[in-house]
Amino acid sequence: MMLERRPSDLTKNRDVIISVRGVEVGFGERTILKGLDLDVYRGEILGFVGGSGQGKSVLTRAILGLVPKRAGTIQVLGQNLDDLSPEERRQLERHWGVLFQQGALFSALTVKQNIQVPMREYLHLSDRLLDELAMLKIEMVGLNPDAADKLPSELSGGMIKRAALARALALDPEIVFLDEPTSGLDPIGAGEFDDLIATLQRTLGLTVFMVTHDLDSLYSVCDRIAALGEGKILAEGPIEVMLESDHPWLRSYFHGKRARAVMAGGA
Ligand SMILES: Nc1ncnc2c1ncn2[C@@H]1O[C@H](COP(=O)(O)OP(=O)(O)OP(=O)(O)O)[C@@H](O)[C@H]1O
Questions:
Q1: Burial readout 14-35 (b: 16 or more C-beta within 10 A, e: otherwise)
Q2: How would DSSP label each residue in 53-75?
Q3: What is the pLDDT of residue 1?
Q4: Which side of the chain, N or C, has fewer Cβ within a 10 Å radius?
Q5: Is residue 118 assigned to a domain?
Q6: How many domains would you assign to the chain?
Q7: What are phi and psi of 189, to 5 degrees?
Q8: PANTHER family annotated for this entry (predicted)?
Q9: Is residue 210 part of a domain?
Q10: pLDDT confidence of 2, banded at 50, 70, 90?
């Protein structure tokens, strides 16, 4: 069953920063996304939910241009991804940062060197300036300065996430893609990471596209939520829209035992 899409008040008069129209993605015989439409608005934190294997990572990767689509258009910052030359595409990529699920830091590089990888690719700055910039990012994500010279293997899970976020922020992006940023963190670590994302979004004016299963994150930091199922967006809007939906998956997700516990927790 398809639910009527209902734009929230939050979206009025706001710039669309990512526009997905009629996107179809499949592998072999299987079609994962079946003509999906989605808008992401400048400055919002959009939580992207859906059952396991529904295609949340596939859509994220399609927006990043990492998996081919069979149909549809994707515009990011007003540019149609299909129309870009390799150099235009490289310039566009400067404007987004990505935090993949596994953190994906280079294991042989220190935190500082990891953060400097995108900087070295795009900026032509002295080593001293690159060091200063990296230390700024380290501070921004709440890591101790002495984390700079550590290898990923010397860090806790929470610190790895922060270091990966610092690298995603290396080029001062306008959009950050986060794939299950709080997975693997304990509830306190996850809550602190959520707070960090909310603070960065407010202070830097970031737009955040966050794939998450974490109900706490959805309640506490997301401005809007989009739910994926059956290859399309089942519903999108603030949490109230999710709670009012009578789609069976949304009902069991947002009214299940765990959801009730989160609500009761005062979110
Ligand atoms: N490169 C690929 N080749 C073939 N099938 C793929 C490929 N990438 C993803 N898939 C399939 O597409 C489906 C959607 O995968 P995806 O990782 O996007 O799900 P998800 O919604 O992010 O799930 P989860 O919440 O478990 O991470 C899965 O069935 C997966 O096996």
A1: eeebbbbeebbbbeeeeebbee
A2: TSSHHHHHHHHTTSS--SEEEEE
A3: 37
A4: N
A5: yes
A6: 1
A7: -60, -40
A8: PROTEIN TRIGALACTOSYLDIACYLGLYCEROL 3, CHLOROPLASTIC (PTHR43023:SF3)
A9: no
A10: very low
The predicted-structure confidence for 19-67, as pLDDT tens digits, reads as follows: 999 999 999 999 999 999 999 999 999 999 999 999 999 999 999 999 9
Answer whether residue 13 is part of any domain.
Answer: no
Residue nearest atom 13 in ligand 1 by C-alpha distance: 53
Identify the pLDDT of residue 260.
65
Domain residue limits at 141: 106-172
Q: What is the mean pLDDT of residues 155-161?
A: 90
Q: Return the structure tokens found at 27.
A: 């592998």
Global pTM value: 0.90
Place of tokens 């008040």: 9
Strands 30-41 and 16-27: antiparallel
- Residue 131 CB partners (closer than 8 Å, separation 6+): 112
The average confidence (pLDDT) of the chain is 89
- Asked whether residue 157 is domain-assigned, the answer is yes
Residue-wise pLDDT tens digits, 106-152:
999 999 999 999 999 999 999 999 999 999 999 999 999 999 999 99
Q: Measured in angstroms, how far is the CA atom of residue 169 from the centroid of ligand 1? A: 26
Give the Å distance between the CA of 52 and the centre of ligand 1: 8
From ligand 1's centre to the CA of 59, what distance in Å?
9
Q: Which residues lie with the beta carbon below 6 Å from any ligand 1 atom? A: 27, 32, 50, 52-58
Report the separation in Å between the CA atom of 77 and the middle of ligand 1, taken as the mean of its atom positions: 26
Angle, to 10 degrees, between the axis of helix 157-168 and the axis of helix 111-122? 10
